[in-house]
Design a protein that fits this description.
Radius of gyration: 17 Å
Number of helices: 7
Number of domains: 1
Largest sheet: 2 strands, antiparallel
Oligomer: single chain
Helix content: over 70%
Strand content: 5-15%
């Protein structure tokens, strides 16, 4: 079996577990699960993976070292909530990007933190534009559901991470620049109203 880097393994495990947690309500009906899981995998992939990699690559840009580390307890908690609530309510804390090797300034730390929510906003807007382009010509229930889930997962994930509570991104952004935090929060709220 080929060797998989620990970070890649952590990302894959976290991605699959949170996708299963969010798709859990389909387990009672295999045909529903069969339809839900690919949509949730793609939505979680664009939301979670791109969010975390944005933190990582911006940190690397500032000459720091960065690596995603999954939180097993957070993943178990997500599955437990999915089981308890039948997939109706899930809270996922899959892990975080750990940064080391350089003393980051408050501004650098703020920009690294804002990169995750901004990546979610970009993905939501991108798929909203794609939906506008594609849907007049081709509409399928699968694509409608897929695009809606990708847009909503990215918006809600970005907005949740903007909450000014440690260790969430919003707290670090607020410490760095209150105006940037407030403007981004307003943009996310307006995007929720207009894009969904």
């Amino acid at each position: 079996m080929p060797h998989i880097k620990p970070e890649l393994l952590h990302i894959l495990i976290a991605w699959i577990v949170i996708s299963l947690a969010f798709a859990w309500r389909g387990f009672s009906n295999f045909s529903a699960f069969y339809l839900i899981l690919p949509i949730v995998l793609l939505a979680a992939g664009t939301g979670f993976i791109i969010h975390e990699l944005s933190h990582k690559f911006v940190a690397i840009h500032y000459n720091a070292k960065a690596r995603f580390v999954m939180w097993p307890h957070g993943l178990v908690f997500a599955i437990a909530l999915a089981l308890i609530f039948g997939g109706g309510f899930v809270f996922a804390a899959p892990g975080a990007v750990y940064i080391w090797g350089k003393d980051l300034s408050r501004k650098e730390n703020g920009i690294i933190s804002v990169a995750g929510p901004v990546s979610n906003l970009v993905m939501a807007i991108l798929f909203f534009i794609l939906r506008l382009i594609i849907f007049p010509f081709y509409i399928s229930p699968f694509l409608v559901n897929l695009f809606f889930n990708i847009i909503s997962v990215n918006l809600f994930l970005g907005l949740f991470n903007l909450l000014p509570i440690p260790p969430l991104d919003g707290y670090k952004v607020l410490v760095w620049n209150k105006l940037v935090w407030a403007v981004l929060l307003v943009i996310f709220i307006r995007a929720l109203i207009y894009l969904l």
